[in-house]
Structures are given as structure tokens and as C-alpha cells.
Please model this.
Amino acid sequence: MPDERPDDSWTVGPTLLWFVYALIVALPLVDHSLSALADRVTAPRESAGAPPAGPAFAPQVAAADEDVPSAPIPTSAPAASGNHDLGVLDDVCLDGSDDACKRWAMDAFYHAVAAEKAGKLGRALRVSWYGDSVVATDAIPGRLRQRLQTELGDGGPGFVYVEPPHRFCNNDAIVRGSSGTWLTYAISTIPIADHLYGPGGSTTETVDGASSTIKIASGMVHGIELYYLAQPHGGTATISADGAELARVDTAGADKRAGWASASDAAGARKIEIATRGRVRLFGIDLENPTGAVVDNLGVVSVNVKSYGNNDGAHWRAELGHRAADLIMIMIGANEAEWLAPGDRDTKDYQAHYEQVLAPIREGAPNASCLVVSPTDQAEADGTGYRSRPVMPLLVAAQRAAAHARGCAFYSTYDWMGGKSSAAKWFRARLVSSDFQHLSRRGADKMADAVFDTLMLGYRSYAGK
Model:
């Protein structure tokens, strides 16, 4: 959710002005983002029977609970050579020409699915999904995780934050708890001076000892890997599973550098605890099984196209390489759509900025498939109803061009949901909330199912080629 900007033309009594000022000052301290202000002043949330897909809210007007048309998911691949596109998923050739391509952007993922199904991958298949609050809530990645694990087996929660960078950064596969004081930083909320955020754009630190527990919502995990920062005067982190100590990690080092510590539990664990002594800085923890599939939710609230530039490039590339995902997905743009406008400089430069996001991803994980996912259509009130934001087709076109320029496939959620004016239709059908950014749970399921079906069609069509 984007930062709120005060309206300088709004004048009220002094008492109310001081009240608003206090809110603006206090909320970042609580939520790490001015986006939290919207959570207090917009419409009520959906009922408990239909949990929202994020920091979103129930539609403000009555609406029929109906479905809306969207682009059909293809059931077969194109017969013509030189085209690996599948519906709204545009693939791109990485080696050769389209008519005689040796390697397509999505091939690594399709081949990894085939290897996992054949029992030859040697680990869980990994999908890392980056994004803004639309992703961070886990409504969409969580549904994709569920579908992939039904297809390939339960690989575990995957990489998760030890302490989330915002209260809307969730993961449905786990339940977190903590004690003591953790200071958490992220690329779009509270920055840290050294720009070292690990693979997921967030890091947490304690200086006097703290602990964090992670309970597996369903099933068990057998493999654990702690992502941490070695640093001068670093303390210790002890990893326990169901009360039994598995590993004790010394995070002291001559200088700052990324570190990883692995542990395993042959019987499987349901509750993981990380207890610290002294100064300890963590990036996250990977919870995996030897086979199956995982979907990392690496969404961070308030992220925009420039946020990833806050990462130290060499550090982020190394972390991406270590994570070794088979598919890296990036879905941002919901925030930018609120302030970009046709013809302005930022819109003209948007493709270049997006390419800067993708460059370290391609460099750090050159063997992974990369898939850019566009934002959904957004609407705004125009006095008579809701109209699609004029910048949306320009933003989507810039993301498509940036994706192909950097060797990434492109999935147009905007076109799939119906293109221009589709947000208003989805709103009436209760598939998107009143901010026109965050999908309802049913809308999130609809989108994630479409992505899953397209990915599986690609696997069936191209894994053997």
C-alpha cells in the first residue's frame, strides 16, 4: 500500500490538525509505513467468513456476488514453432532466435517441475515471489503454494522472515511468535545503513538477546537453514526443533558478510525456535523438506520500482545465488500506479527503472526462470463512477518491455482480468476491495489458480524440449 501524502489544501481547526499530525508521526513507529494511516480511515474489513487478501477492505457499496469474465486459460500450447507464449504469459528466447530457440526464459522452471516429478531434482522445487503488499499478505502466493504442493508434494513453508518487516507481511504456512526486542528493517519501510537485507529485502536484529518461534501450520519440516549476518562482536543463535537443540551458530566475524547455517531433523519438526544471546542479525530462515515444492513470500509492504535499489547489489546477488530458486516472480506496480501519469518523466523512465530491478536478479540467479507479473487494473472515482487509471496500459507495457529486455517472461494479470475498466467489474463482483489494489480472498484464489494452470500447461508442453 503506498505512502499517504497529506493534502495541503485541507484546513480544519487546530485541535484536529494536531490530532492528524500525531497520527502521521506515530503510525510509522508502529507499522513502519505511512501506508498504515489508510488502515484507520477507510471502510471496514470483510467479514470473518471471507478474510481479506491483505490490508484491504470490504467494498463500500452493495454488490452482487457474481463472477466476472477473464481471459481463458489455454488448454494447449501453440502449434507453431517460435512461440512459447501461453495465453497472457509471454515467454522470451534467451539463446538463439524465436524460430530456433535453444533456451526460453521459462525452461528452467518447466524442467525443474519435470525433475521433481521424476524424483531427480534432489531437493524441493523453489519459487521465490517478490512484490508489494498485494503479494506480502500471502493470499496469492499462499494459494499458489497450496496448488503446487498438491501437485508436487509438501516441500514446507520455504524461506520466511524470522520477524516480518510489517504486520501485513504474512505467510499462511506458519504461525510466528517472539519475545524480547527485535529491530526490523526493510527496503521500503525503515532503512538500515549498510543496505544488507538478505534475499528477501528485510533484516531483523537484537542486541540484548531475544527469541522467535515459528510453528508449522500443517505437516512438518526436516531441513532448516538460518540466513544471518556475520559481524564483529556478533552473538550466538541457537536453533531448536520441538524443544531439542539442533545447532548453535556463532555470528561473530572479522567483518560483515552473509552466513548460512544448516540443521536437519530426521523425524520432522513442527515448532522451530531461534534463541539469541548478544548482538545477532538475521535475514530469515528456510524451512524445507527434501522433496515437494515451496513458494517463498518475499513481498514487502510499500515496495515500488525504486525500492530494490536500496539493496547492496553484490550482497543481494550472492543471496539470490545461494537461495537457488527455480522460478523468481516479481509483482510490483500497485503503488506506482497511484502517482504515475501519462506523459510525466517518471512514467517515461519507468521501463529503465524496472530493468534496474531485474538486472541483479538475472545476474544473481542466471539459471533460474524469471517471471514478471503485472499489477491488476486499478480504478479511481471520476464523479459518476469508477474509471480505470489512464496510466495502467503504459505501466503494463513498460513492465513487459523491461521483462523481455532482461530475459524474463511476462504475465499480464491486467489483460487476464479484462484490461481497461476490469477493476470496476471486479469490484462489483467482490473480487477486489475498495482500494482497487488488493484482491478479495476469492479474487486472489482466482488469480493464483490462473497462474498455476498456465505454469502447469507450460510444464506439460515444454518440459521435454
